[in-house]
Design goal:
The protein has eleven helices and twelve strands. Helix 4 packs antiparallel against helix 5. It is an alpha+beta fold and 385 residues long.
Amino acid sequence: IVWESDAERRRFTFVSRRAELLGYPVSSWLDEDGFWHAIVHPDDVELAELYFRDAVERSEHHEYEYRARTADGRTMWVRDRVRVIRQSNGSVQLRGVTVDEELRRELEERLLQSQKMDAVGQLAGGVAHDFNNLLVVISGYTDLLLSRLEDEPALAQLREIKQAANRAAALTEQLLAFGRRAPTVSEPVDLDDLVRGLDPMLRRLIDEDVALSIDTDGGYVRADRGQLEQVLVNLVINARDAMPGGGEIQIETTTAVIAHGEAADLGLTSGSWVVLKVRDTGIGMTAETKARIFEPFFTTKERGKGTGLGLATVYGIVQQGGGRVAVDTELGAGTKFSIYLPAAPSPHEDVVEVEDSPRTPVILVVEDEPAVRGLVRSVLEAEGY
């Protein structure tokens, strides 16, 4: 928006037709006293006024960002670039350009969110890897003791230790998945077959007042089948919990050829993708909640009803597989998760038979963690190696 204004009277003397970007007619800009103050967001008026006065007093050109209120009630970020012109008669005139900053700020926010998630993922993955080594030692030596002891009270206590170690290991697996450090088995997976195979289990997970529908028309992806199953289960559980009063969950698989423009908006490369969609008719999310849903341990559920790792795990698994997660949600209008995975060709039917090799009595163990190395040696020696 190009404009001119009298600095003393705060009255616009010229404004371009582009002024209608904010929804107000040009006549409002030119005819209404204090129009600029009226459209600046109340929380930003004081700072914007400070910039204005300082620039006029020093006759300096200036620019600053603030939120403007549009005619239909929305809030929009804009940037003013202003030149201060002192006339020969001593009056001050302002000439400026007001620029729409919404897209730039949105891209900056997405970049910052991506950088934050990457940093949190590295931290979570690093901690989980070291902690997992400790759990391997605890669980392994517990197994050795369980196989040697006969005292029932001691065995019962060891079983409790084993169960606690297993629960802790499950948490570290989720953290490793979020940090994209979990070991994976990459293989061709028929996504339609995977979804249909999980159908019976998914129906047992949801409540009786939740309807589940499945529509499959996807294709092959190259991924870890077990991790993909975990992605779908986590999304369905999340959808179920978002509908305490019942509702509907829709699972759909499709294929899509995404062109360059749309791919850039989704953070993808152009080409063929297989899409897994999970929709619910639940409570939806606010923008603030949506911005944090993939953070480890962030949850909106009651205390004791969630670890906050379900969606973090989904994020890590999909990112590790070269895919992306898109979320479409609105408070009171449900949520849709779209999982984009690179399409893969159908696997060849050729089967290569491998003869079983006889077991050899010598094994070389390579492990940089001394405690884990000692455990593996003990287990193998107990088996006669």
